[in-house]
Specification:
Blueprint: H1 3-14, E1 19-23, E2 28-31, H2 33-39, H3 43-46, H4 61-73, E3 77-81, E4 90-99, E5 102-112, H5 132-149, E6 152-160, H6 163-170, H7 172-189, E7 195-200, E8 203-210, H8 213-226, E9 231-234, E10 237-239, E11 243-250, H9 257-273, E12 279-281, H10 284-305, E13 309-318, E14 324-335, E15 339-341, H11 343-353, H12 356-376, E16 383-387, H13 390-394, H14 398-409, E17 416-421, H15 429-442, E18 445-451, H16 458-461, E19 468-471, H17 473-477, H18 483-498, E20 502-506, H19 511-519, E21 524-526, E22 534-535, H20 536-545
Parallel strand pairs: 11-12, 14-16, 16-17, 17-18, 18-19, 19-20, 20-21
Antiparallel strand pairs: 1-2, 1-5, 3-4, 4-5, 6-8, 6-11, 7-8, 9-10, 13-14, 13-21, 13-22, 14-15
Helix pairs in contact: 6-7, 10-11, 12-14
The chain binds ligand C2E and magnesium ion (2 copies).
Length: 550
């Protein structure tokens, strides 16, 4: 080493600038004091180590990638990096030194992005988030993808309520801390692949591809919740802030980036005018849906906690003997405000929100326990059918749950039937068959509900270990008026015979329909003709005395 080199080394090592030098292989040969201090990595640990050692600090793996990239290409690289606990944004500039076309060394400088080029590249200086310009590009990109895939895109603007008051009262510095705190919260609301941006002072934005409109409803809820905890201003001070959300959806609310951002801003304005800390969709229809969905979802949660759900039972009647041969458990919700609510009104929301698993398990338990009680009371034993939703069926623990409920309630498995729908039979046929076989081994029956409305392949039907087909109500309703429908009903009855399956007709309301079914060999009928679904006590009476109509 010459004297000059030694001097240079000492200079670099002692400077407070945050610099680091590697050799051509990416091994760290020199670290400045400033670099060690800023990253919190001791200089002794870094000297001689591969550049990847920087990865011990969250946010710095990016730095190692930049250095490797620069060494490989022999060209400078600059990119954003994060330093935990230090207000950003930071960037790292990696400049390789090449001799004879080969990189011999690399100088890496860590600096705040204000002093570098990140601002020009589209990042906001305070928060490190993409700025309005870059956000526009990201929306453009999302729209491009969505047009090809036929999906929807949600553009969401988030405003901090009364931000100018916060700035006036607390001062700019604390105002900035609020913005940085809010940035952290918002980042946690989205997948890393979704863009969070800062458009202007207190305006943040998201763009995301959505497959169902309700995805965006869920996200607005999450964002509003993110504002529920106060933001820390350091030194044990914190401040409560709220935010409002405005959403526009492609393609319904606009075709272009500008239109969508503008309409989301209109929605945000309405949300802030309308009382703050709320979300608003651009279209009235979406608003109504979002509000309704939220009400139903929180209602279901409350209903589960307050035991507002109950089970009605509808008999399956043997048309020849007129005896009750089985029953279907149908859930009802006694909402204190709305009264008795039918499943069609809340099952779809329960399915989307995942609450169906809790409801379904409760119905299963309640039905098994009730059925066992009736048997203990000496009523004629009958099999109870319980509807199973796709989510429950796909749950890996489903078979264990069924076994456990049977054991706990003391109901013998032969008195339980599970109803699944045709749509649940698509996908990985092998896995579905295996799950069904496990259930059959437990000893319960399996039926396919609403048969004829889905698209199940008849060739697969024989592979599923099912016991019963339930002909959908639509075919029964039209049996007298439409010869084609009558033909389908007849064919399904014939098919079940051929496959040795029990067949049940749903929804027979009048005598002629029952006679048609009887004439064509369908012996089990579930329909208003015999009885509507009944509360437990009334159903017990019917079990004892038989169905009413003559
Ligand atoms: P589903 O399983 O096909 O149940 C039969 C539906 O047809 C019931 O509606 C029943 O009241 C109705 N029905 C029976 N006979 C007649 C008739 O003669 N005429 C007419 N117009 N309707 C008749 P409900 O109770 O409103 O249930 C609707 C659907 O909600 C059920 O269709 C089922 O898919 C779902 N569901 C009900 N309870 C549960 C549950 O505990 N879990 C799950 N996952 N879904 C459930
Ligand atoms: Mg059913
Ligand atoms: Mg059905």
């Amino acid at each position: 080493m010459t004297n000059d080199e030694g001097l240079l080394r000492t200079l670099l090592a002692s400077t407070r600038e945050t610099v680091l030098v590697t050799d051509g292989e990416g091994r760290i040969v020199l670290v400045s004091n400033g670099f060690a201090e800023t990253t919190g990595l001791p200089a002794e640990d870094l000297a001689g180590a591969p550049i990847e050692r920087l990865g011990r600090v969250d946010g710095l793996p990016a730095a190692a990638d930049l250095v490797r990239g620069a060494l490989q290409d022999g060209a400078s690289r600059i990119g954003p990096v994060a330093l935990p606990g230090l207000a950003g944004p930071w960037e790292l500039a990696a400049s390789p030194v090449a001799r004879d076309g080969r990189a011999q060394a690399c100088l890496a400088v860590l600096r705040t992005a204000e002093s570098g080029s990140a601002r020009r590249e589209g990042f906001d200086a305070l928060t490190g988030l993409p700025n309005r310009h870059l956000f526009g590009d990201r929306v453009e990109q999302a729209l491009h993808n969505a047009r090809r895939s036929g999906k929807s895109v949600a553009v969401m603007l988030i405003g901090i309520d009364r931000f100018s008051d916060i700035n006036d009262v607390l001062g700019r510095q604390d105002g900035d801390r609020v913005l940085v705190g809010v940035t952290e919260r918002l980042r946690q609301c989205v997948r890393t692949s979704d863009t969070v941006a800062r458009l202007e002072s207190d305006r943040f934005a998201f763009v995301m591809q959505i497959s169902a409109i309700d995805d965006s409803v869920l996200l607005t809820e999450k964002v509003l919740r993110a504002f529920e905890q106060p933001v820390s201003l350091g030194e044990q001070r914190d401040v409560a802030v709220t935010g409002s959300v405005g959403v526009s959806i492609f393609p319904a609310d606009g075709e272009t980036t500008d239109e969508l951002i503008r309409n989301a801003a209109v929605a945000l304005h309405h949300a802030q005018q309308g009382g703050r800390h709320r979300s608003q969709f651009f279209s009235g229809e979406m608003n109504a849906r979002a509000r309704h969905r939220l009400e139903v979802e929180s209602g279901i949660r409350r209903g589960l906690a307050n035991r507002e759900f109950l089970v009605y039972y509808q008999p399956k009647v043997d048309v020849n003997s007129r005896r009750v041969a089985g029953m279907e458990a149908l859930v009802r919700w006694r909402d204190p405000q709305r009264g008795l609510v039918a499943p069609g009104e809340f099952i779809p929301v329960a399915e989307e929100s995942g609450l169906i698993e809790q409801i379904g398990q409760w119905v299963l338990e309640e039905t098994c326990a009730q059925n066992r009680r009736w048997q203990d009371e000496g009523l004629p034993p009958v099999r109870a059918s319980v509807n199973v939703s796709a989510r429950q069926f796909r749950n890996r623990n489903f078979v264990a749950i069924v076994e456990e409920v049977l054991a706990r309630t003391g109901l013998a498995p032969r008195w339980l039937e599970l109803e699944i729908t045709e749509s649940m039979l698509m996908g990985d046929i092998g896995a579905i068959v295996a799950r069904m076989e496990d259930l059959r081994r437990v000893g319960v029956s399996l039926s396919i509900d609403d048969f004829g409305t889905g698209y199940s392949s008849l060739s697969y039907l024989s592979r599923f270990p099912i016991t019963t087909l339930k002909i959908d109500r639509a075919f029964i309703t039209d049996v007298q008026s439409n010869p084609h429908t009558a033909e389908i009903a007849r064919a399904i009855i014939g098919l079940s015979r051929g496959l040795n399956l029990e067949v049940v007709a749903e929804g027979a309301e009048v005598k002629e329909q029952v006679e048609f079914l009887q004439a064509h060999g369908c012996e089990l009928v579930q329909g208003f003709y015999y009885s509507r679904p009944l509360p437990a006590e009334e159903f017990a009476a019917m079990l004892r005395d038989g169905p009413r109509p003559a």
